[in-house]
Each structure stands twice: as C-alpha cells, then as structure tokens.
Amino acid sequence: MAIPSRKSTLLLFLLVSSGGVTRAAMSMSTSATKQAIIESRLRGALWGMFAGDALASPTHWYYGGYSQIKRDYGPNGITTYTKPVTNLAGSILNKSDPNGGGRRSSFFGGGEKQRKTIIGDVINHGKLKYWDPKKSIHYHATLEAGENTLEMQLARVLMKSIVATNGQFNEEHFRKSYVDFMTTKGSHNDTYASTCHRMFFANMVFHKK
Predict the structure, then answer these.
(1) First vs last Cα of the chain: how many Å apart?
(2) What is the pLDDT averaged over residues 145-151?
(3) What's the CA gap between 91 and 105, in Å, rounded?
(4) How many angstroms separate the CA atoms of 12 and 32, rounded?
(5) What DSSP line would sit under 61-106, residue for residue?
(6) Is 88 exposed, middle or buried (0-12, 13-18, 19+ CB in 10 A)?
C-alpha cells in the first residue's frame, strides 16, 4: 500500500497550521492519497495474480494432495517457481480434441488424411505432439519455471488492449489483439489451450464464423 512519507506529512501539517492550505487543497491531497492507495492495491492484486499462476501451474489437475506433489517435485514439495513435470498420470490432455471442444474423435487415425489442425497449426504452434492419446502429458509441460500459463498471458493482452483504448474495454480491439496473439508463433509457450479457445478458432477456420 502506498503511504505518504514522513517528510510530505510534516510539510502538509506545517502548511495547515500556518493557514497555507485551503479546504480545497486538503481535499485534493486526500483524494490523491486515496488514488495512490487504490493504484497500489491494484498493482499488488495484478502482481499476485501473475505470481500465483506461475507458482500453481505445476500442480494443475493434481487431486492427490501433498503426497502427489511430493512424488513429482520432491520431499519439500514446491517452494519456489518450478518447471512442471513432463508426464502426469491421469491427465486428460490426451483425451481433449485438438480441433474443437470436448473430447477427441478419431483425430490421430492411421489412414485419415491429416488436415490443418487448430492446436499445432493455428494456435499453440508446435504443441500438437503433446496431445497424443498414447501419452499422458502435463498440461503445462512446456513452460519453464516462473513462466505464465496461456490464460495469464491473455490477461496481459487484455490489459494492454484497455490501455491502448484509453482505459475503456473495446470489444473489437480486444478481439483483434486476442487473435493476433494466439495465431502468432512464439507468442507464448504453453502446452494447453482451453475448450473456449479451440472452439473459437475452429469456428473461425473451419466454419468461417
């Protein structure tokens, strides 16, 4: 939280005592202090969101409690930013449809002619191999320690969009920013993309919606 320094507080007190500050000036000072406090809290919330995401991503889809965490990350568990393990027992990434929402169909069928894929070609470039139904891969296996997930990267895209549109949310601006980010190779390093993203781009690419 932003707190006025002793020097600024003393100066304000002296000015008030000598009659050098009007009620309007005092009101402005109080308003500025409240604004500084709000901004400090917002910054803290945002930093906490990004830090929490990076700390928690290694345990995505962990329902086995602390024993499961210790099994994968050592006897002390996770005490700092940590790279997610590659393999995760019980992962349903291998059951998810890389070309849309929900569970996969016969996507990796042997004789089926391979077409453009949403995961791998359109978004999450180069990550399709981790969605193989014969494997059990962690949802964020390709992230490095301290790296944010796709969802947090998109929160940053939203923040930048709001700044670019003078503090207002503009649907068209954000949609373009979102599509540009998602379809640009190397824009993020995450393995997983949620159903909503896969369905959005499936509709855009396959159904021209």
Answers:
(1) 46
(2) 98
(3) 17
(4) 13
(5) T--SHHHHHHHHH-TT---S--PPPSB-TT--GGGB-TTSSSB--S
(6) buried
**Which pair of structure tokens corresponds to residue 68?**
């499961």
How far apart, in whole angstroms, are the C-alpha atoms of residue 129 and residue 120? 8
Segment 5-46, tens digit of pLDDT = 555 544 444 444 455 556 655 566 788 899 999 999 999 999
Among the listed residues 156, 171, 105, the one whose alpha carbon sits nearest the alpha carbon of residue 133: 105
Instruction: Say which amino acid occupies 74.
Output: G
How far is the C-alpha of 181 from the C-alpha of 188, rounded, in Å?
Answer: 8
Backbone angles phi, psi at 42, to 5 degrees: -65, -45
Whole-structure pTM value: 0.79
Q: Between helices 171-183 and 195-205, what is the axis angle to 10°?
A: 90
- Average pLDDT score over the chain: 86
| Cβ contact 190:149 at 8 Å | yes
